[in-house]
Every structure is written in structure tokens, then in C-alpha cells.
Amino acid sequence: MADSRLPKQLMYGELLHGKRSVGGQKKRFKDCLKISLKELGILNDSWEMLAQDRPSWRCKLTKGAKAAEAKRIAEAKQKHNVRKSRPAFTKSPTADYPCPQCGRTFRAQIGLFSHLRTHSNRQQTNL
User: Fold this and answer.
1) Sign of the C-alpha dihedral, residues 73, 74, 78, 81?
2) Could you tell me if 50 and 56 are in contact, meaning their C-beta atoms sit under 8 angstroms apart?
3) Which of 53, 85, 96, 122 could join 105 in a cystine, given CB atoms 3.0 to 4.6 angstroms apart?
4) Hey, is 88 helix, strand or coil?
């Protein structure tokens, strides 16, 4: 491929001037290609020679894509199994929260907290 072609300039080009953004760095097209080649099982130093032989390149990409997809599915299933194997959350029957002023019980602490505001409003109106 000629050096003046845009795909070659993107793949081999580097920033001559300018600065990176603060925080996380933005990925370049070249960075995304390297990650994709790694997922497909193609080495960064040998992909150029492999790409010159079109049939072997397509075969390698197809096999790599199938392997990457199988790996992704296996990881998703494993993650699903881990998530589903956790014991279900069961609320203990003694986790009631009684109001210290009127004795009313609540199932959740936030309910008691909200209820206590009504007691503080009554005390303010009585003054």
C-alpha cells in the first residue's frame, strides 16, 4: 500500500504535536486495532506478513473471531453462574425497627427515619 493512503497513515501515524486530555487518555484507531488483533490471537509483530497472504489472513481472522466469541460466551456463563449461586437475600423476622416515642414498628430503617420526622414536626407545633 502506498504511503499516501489514509489507512496506512492511520495505522502507522503518530501525533507530532498537541497534548493528551487530562484524565483518561482517548484511544486512537491504532490502539483499537491492537486490542482487536490481540483478542483474535494475532501477534502484533507478525500481522503484516500474515495480511499479505489473503486466504491465510481470512482463515486466521475467522478462527480468531470464533475463538474470541466462544471465550466471551464462556465468561458470560461463568459470571451468570457466580451471580446465581449466591444465596438469596432473606430478611430476618427480628429486623423490625421500633419507634422510641410511640412504639410503632417498621420493616426498614428508612421507614423509621421518615416516621421520626413526624414526631419532630409535632414537637415544633406544640411550642
Assistant:
1) positive
2) yes
3) 96
4) coil
Q: Which of 25, 22, 36 lies closest to 11, judged by CA?
A: 36
**Which grid coordinates belong to 95?**
429486623
Q: What does DSSP assign to residue 71?
A: H
Question: In the structure, what pLDDT confidence band is assigned to residue 34 with cuts at 50, 70 and 90?
Answer: confident
Confidence (pTM): 0.51
> Given the C-alpha cell 428508612, which residue does it identify?
110
Q: Going by DSSP bridges, is the β-strand pair 97-98/105-106 parallel, antiparallel, or unpaired? A: antiparallel
Backbone angles phi, psi at 81, to 5 degrees: -65, -40
The answer to whether the CB of 106 falls within 8 A of the CB of 99 is yes
- CB-CB contact of 60 with 40 (8 Å): yes
pLDDT digits (tens, 9 = 90+) for 37-91: 888 888 888 888 888 899 998 999 999 999 999 999 999 999 999 988 877 766 6
